[in-house]
Write a structure and sequence with these properties.
The protein contains 17 helices and 12 strands. It has about 450 residues and is of the alpha/beta class. The termini are far apart.
Length: about 450
C-alpha cells in the first residue's frame, strides 16, 4: 500500500485527520504498524443497528466516512454511508421508534456516498423527526450529512464546520529516478492521467475546477438542508473554518447548544409535535378524499357507502326545509283567508271589497276607505240640499242666527263656512264643503256629529 491510494480522491475532511491517515498509509507501506488515532467510539455494525431510548433511536456516525467500509476505511476506523443509511431506514420503519438521534463524531471523509446518505435523512425527516448531535467532531463530510437533519444540537466545546473540499497529488518522479525507474504514461484524453504525472499548470487548473464543482455542490447541499440562500452559506459557514459549538450557533451551523439529554428531549418534543400534526393531516386528507368523490356519478346507495355523513346531513337539511316550507305555506294561506273574510264582513260595497282583495290591501284599510266614502257622500248630499234652500235658512230649515257664522264666541257653523266659501270663491257647494272640511276639521266633525 502506498500514498497512491489517496491520490486524486476528493476529501471533505479535517486536514489534520487526512495527515494522520497519510501517516498510517506510509507506515503500512514501509512495513510498520501504526494505528489511526481516530475516534475511540464504536462505529455502527450490521448486527447492532442502534440503541433505542424512550422511543428515540440513537444511531452512531463515528469515524472517517466513506461509501462502504473497504480494508483501508476499516483500518482508519471508518463509517460506512451505506450501512448508516440502512440503519436510518430501519429506524424509520420501526413502529417502536418515534424519532431518530444521529450521534456524530467524525472529522469527515470522502465525498462518495454523502449525497445519497443526506438524501435518505432529508426524506426520512418527513416521516419522523431526526436530530443530529455532537459533543466531539461534526466536520466537513459529517456536517454535510448532519445538516440534512430536522435540527442540529452541539455542545459548546464541540468542533463543527470545516466546509470545503481538497485532494492531494504525489509526484514520485524523484523516487522513481533514485530507484532507476522510468515511468511512461500512455493516455488518450488530455486530462486522463492528470493525477499520475508531474503536475502542470494546465493539470492544476483542471483539478482546481474539479474541486470547485465539488465545493459548490457541498455549499448548495448545506443551503438546501438548512433552508437558507447559497449566498448566506459562503461568507458565514463555508470558508473551511472550524467553529466551536457556540460559534457554530452564531454562524447558523447548528440550532441549539446542549448535551445528549437535551438532544434526546428535543427529539421527543419534535416527535410529539410531529405526530399531532400528522394526525391532523390524516383527518384533513380523509375529509379531502370524501370531498373529491365524483358525486355526480354516484347513486344514492353509493353516496351512503362513500359519504354517509354527507347523506345524513342532506337528509336532515331536506327534512328541515320541507317542514319550514309547509309551515310557511299554511301560515300564508290562513292569513290570506282571514284578510278576505274580514274585508267581506266589513259591509263594503262589492266593488270596493273586490278591489281590496285583488290588490292585497290589509283589511283595516277597507274601513278607512268606507268612512271616507260615506263622509264625502254625506257632505255632497248636504251641500246639494242646502243649495236648494234660501241663504238665511240652515240645513234643518231653520232661520240662521247672526252668530252661526262664527260670531259670539261659539264655534263657527260648518255649513255657514261652506256658504261663505261658495260666495267668495264662486264655486259649487260640494267643492266648497270639501275645502272647508280640510280647513276646519273640528267644525266639520261637529257638524257630522249633530
Amino acid at each position: 500500500m502506498s500514498l497512491k491510494i489517496l491520490q486524486g480522491e476528493l476529501f471533505a475532511i479535517l486536514p489534520e485527520k487526512l495527515e494522520a491517515i497519510c501517516e498510517v498509509v506510509e507506515a503500512h507501506a514501509e512495513g510498520r504498524t501504526l494505528a489511526f488515532t481516530g475516534t475511540t467510539k464504536r462505529s455502527n455494525r450490521e448486527d447492532e443497528p442502534y440503541e433505542t431510548r424512550s422511543g428515540i433511536a440513537i444511531i452512531n456516525m463515528y469515524g472517517v466516512m466513506g461509501r462502504r467500509l473497504d480494508a483501508f476505511e476499516e483500518m482508519c476506523g471508518g463509517c460506512s454511508c451505506q450501512t448508516l443509511g440502512k440503519h436510518i431506514n430501519h429506524a424509520l420503519a420501526n413502529d417502536a421508534v418515534d424519532a431518530l438521534l444521529v450521534d456524530v463524531d467524525s472529522p469527515g471523509g470522502t465525498l462518495a456516498g454523502l449525497d445519497e446518505l443526506s438524501g435518505t435523512i432529508m426524506r426520512g425527516r418527513n416521516i419522523k423527526p431526526i436530530v443530529a448531535y455532537t459533543d466531539a467532531n461534526m466536520c466537513s463530510a459529517a456536517y454535510w450529512v448532519a445538516s440534512s437533519a430536522t435540527a442540529i444540537v452541539s455542545t459548546k466545546s464541540a468542533t463543527v464546520g470545516s466546509i470545503g473540499v481538497f485532494t492531494t497529488h504525489y509526484d514520485e518522479s524523484a523516487k522513481d529516478a533514485a530507484r532507476g525507474v522510468t515511468r511512461t504514461i500512455i493516455k488518450a484524453g488530455a486530462y486522463k492521467a492528470a493525477m499520475s504525472e508531474s503536475l502542470t499548470d494546465e493539470s492544476l487548473g483542471y483539478m482546481q475546477g474539479h474541486l470547485q464543482a465539488a465545493y459548490d455542490t457541498f455549499v448548495e447541499a448545506v443551503a438546501e438542508h438548512r433552508g437558507v440562500e447559497v449566498e448566506a452559506v459562503h461568507p458565514a459557514m463555508a470558508d473551511g473554518k472550524i467553529f466551536t459549538g457556540k460559534q457554530a450557533l452564531s454562524a447558523g451551523l447548528v440550532d441549539h447548544i446542549g448535551d445528549m439529554e437535551f438532544a434526546l428531549d428535543l427529539a421527543g418534543q419534535l416527535a410529539a409535535n410531529f405526530n399531532q400534526e400528522k394526525n391532523m393531516g390524516t383527518e384533513a386528507v380523509k375529509q379531502a378524499a370524501e370531498q373529491s368523490i365524483n358525486y355526480a356519478a354516484l347513486t344514492v346507495e353509493g353516496l351512503k357507502v362513500h359519504a354517509p355523513s354527507l347523506v345524513e346531513a342532506i337528509a336532515g337539511e331536506a327534512a328541515n326545509n320541507s317542514e319550514a316550507i309547509a309551515k310557511a305555506a299554511k301560515d300564508a294561506t290562513d292569513a290570506e283567508r282571514s284578510r278576505a273574510v274580514e274585508i267581506i264582513k266589513s259591509g263594503a260595497s262589492n266593488e270596493l271589497a273586490l278591489k281590496a282583495i285583488e290588490g292585497g290591501e290589509p283589511a283595516h284599510d277597507i274601513y278607512r276607505q268606507m268612512v271616507t266614502a260615506m263622509q264625502e257622500g254625506k257632505a255632497d248630499a248636504l251641500a246639494s240640499m242646502e243649495g236648494s234652500l234660501g241663504e238665511g235658512v240652515d240645513a234643518k230649515g231653520e232661520e240662521k242666527k247672526p252668530d252661526d257664522a262664527g260670531g259670539g264666541g261659539r264655534k263657527p257653523d260648518f255649513m255657514a263656512l261652506v256658504a261663505d266659501h261658495v260666495k267668495a270663491e264662486k264655486i259649487g257647494r260640494g267643492e266648497a264643503t270639501k275645502a272647508m272640511a280640510r280647513q276646519h276639521p273640528e267644525a266639520y266633525q261637529a257638524w257630522l256629529n249633530r
